[in-house]
Amino acid sequence: xxxxxxxxxxxxxxxxxxxxxxxxxxxxxxxxxxxxxxxxxxxxxxxxxxxxxxxxxxxxxxxxxxxxxxxxxxxxxxxxxxxxxxxxxxxxxxxxxxxxxxxxxxxxxxxxxxxxxxxxxxxxxxxxxxxxxxxxxxxxxxxxxxxxxxxxxxxxxxxxxxxxxxxxxxxxxxxxxxxxxxxxxxxxxxxxxxxxxxxxxxxxxxxxxxxxxxxxxxxxxxxxxxxxxxxxxxxxxxxxxxxxxxxxxxxxxxxxxxxxxx
Length: 262
Description:
globular
């Protein structure tokens, strides 16, 4: 027999912030946690007196409420509600989002990845429109905002001390940063491609001029030079843009370690 839902979860369902299936999954999870008297299950608990915002944050942290579904549901609120009803739901969702994001930052501080000043600065600039679903996402967000500089991050990546979880977070953030950086955005890539195109164009011109049986009239040479210059300029411009121009693919091979098992 299914136990009655947690009052805060029941309120979230009444407000239509969660679905029936999500409510059932949450109830089942709470029943499993209730059987674990020794706290052996690595799962956040939902206290009896928890309010709806805290309950919504708990659902997000445990992924019982997928973040994509949550964010999409928040975007649809103005079409479904208005006035005080809309404000109530938006405020509740914002409070839950803030709690999850704040906890991700706090984990970085607890694991000695950031110091107190960086933590406070990150708290002051918590995103209100997206979910930092993990400490890894929180660290990446700090890098994007400049709360943590690239030099500070490099020191974190190469340091020898720190907790095992802290090293996992930093290494995972470094791997994500390498994967997210496109080849064409790396410094000098389009410049090297442009120089290669120009070198090939002028080399081809020199070979053709040596093989020609007789020199062309001055007027015709001028036309040929202008045409060559125009094609070279077009090649340089194509090299600036990703996905266009000659196929000058660049393969980047980087060492990557398999992250430790959790």
